[in-house]
Amino acid sequence: MRDGSVVLVEIERQTVTRVAPDGSVSVVAHTGGGPNGMAVGPDGAFYVCNNGGFAWRTEMNLLRPAGVPADYTGGRIERVDPRTGAVTVLYDRCGAHKLLGPNDIVFDDKGGFYFTDLGKARARDRDWGGVYYALADGSKIVEVAHPVLTPNGIGLSPDGTVLYVAETETARLWAFDIVSPGVVKKAPFPSPHGGRFIAGLGGFQRFDSLAVDAAGNVCVATLVNGSVSVIAPEGRLLRQVAMPDMFCTNICFGGADLRTAYMTLSGTGQLVSMQWPEPGLRLAYEA
After folding, report:
1. How far apart are CA 100 and CA 116, in angstroms?
2. In what order do the strands lie in the sheet with 112-117?
3. What tens digit of pLDDT does each residue of 238-248 get?
4. I need a surface site. Which of 121, 172, 197, 256 has the fewest CB within 10 A?
C-alpha cells in the first residue's frame, strides 16, 4: 500500500489483515470462511477469494490445511471496504455451478478480474477446479477454463495479453492467450483445458500463488521445497530463491522501485521481505 503497509489474508484466522511498516498487525475485516487471495480493485476496495474454509492440522510445528471443515457451505468472491471492514458477497456461483474454493485473483485494466477456483479435497475424492472472469460491480461472471486440476496462482503478462495459471499438485505453469476480457484462445487437445503448457518442475514440488515481474518472468511460490521459482515466459526455470519455510505461499512486490519482494510463509505464519534482483510488475489498481 502507499503508506508502506502490507495487506494480506489470514486463512485460518479468517481475516483481512494489515501489517504496518514497523511489523504491528491490525485486522481490517473478519470474513469468516477462508479468505485465500486478495487484490485491490478499481474502487480501492479489497476483493477477496474466499475458499469457504479449511480444517487444520499441525505437523512438524507447521500449520497446514487438512480437508473440509464441518461448517463449509461453498466458496465466494467478496468485496471488503478498507475503511469500515464491511464484507459484501459479490459471487457464490457461475451460472448453475457453485463456487467451491476460490483461491487467487488478478485484475486487468478494464475493471474486471480473473480468479482461480481450486475446489475442495476430501478424504476419498476432490473437485475439479476452474478459472473465471468477473466484473467488480457484481454484474457478470463467466467461466474461462474448466476442468483444471488444482488451479492456484494467477497473473497477467506486462502487456495484459497472457493469463498465467499455476497448478498446485502438478507444479505446472500454464498460459492462456487473451482474446478479449474473459475470453481466451483455447489450445487444442491434448491440452486438458485449453491452456498452453509453459513449465513443469521435477521432483516433489507444488505450486501456490504467483506474481509477475516487470520483465514478464513468472515468480511462483513453491511448496515443499520452500522457495520462489522464477520462470521465464518461454518456460525456462531461471532460479529458485530459498525461503525458511516449506509452505511459501505467495509473493508480491512493493517499495518505491518495486524491488522489495514480500513473501507469505504459511507454515510458520510469517510475512517476510527481501530485495529482489528485478523490479516487480505494478498491478492494475495498486493502492
Report:
1. 10
2. 102-107, 112-117, 129-135, 141-148
3. 999 999 999 99
4. 256
